[in-house]
Amino acid sequence: MITTVTLNPAIDKTITVEQFRLNAVNRVLRVYEDIGGKGINVSKVLHHLNNRTVACGFIGEANYGWVQPHIKRLGLSTDFVFVDALTRINTKIIDPIAKSTTDINETGFSVSQVQIEQLKIMLQAYAKQSKFMVFSGSICKGIDLKAYQSLIEAVHPTPWVLDADRDVLRAGLALQPYLIKPNIHELEDLLQIRLKNHDEIVREVRRLIQGYKIHYCLVSMGEQGSILITQDLAYYAKALDIELVTTVGAGDAMLAGFLSCITKGCSDEEALRTATACGAIAVSGISLSAFNNMDIEALIQRVELTKLD
Question: What is the pTM of this model?
Answer without folding.
Answer: 0.94
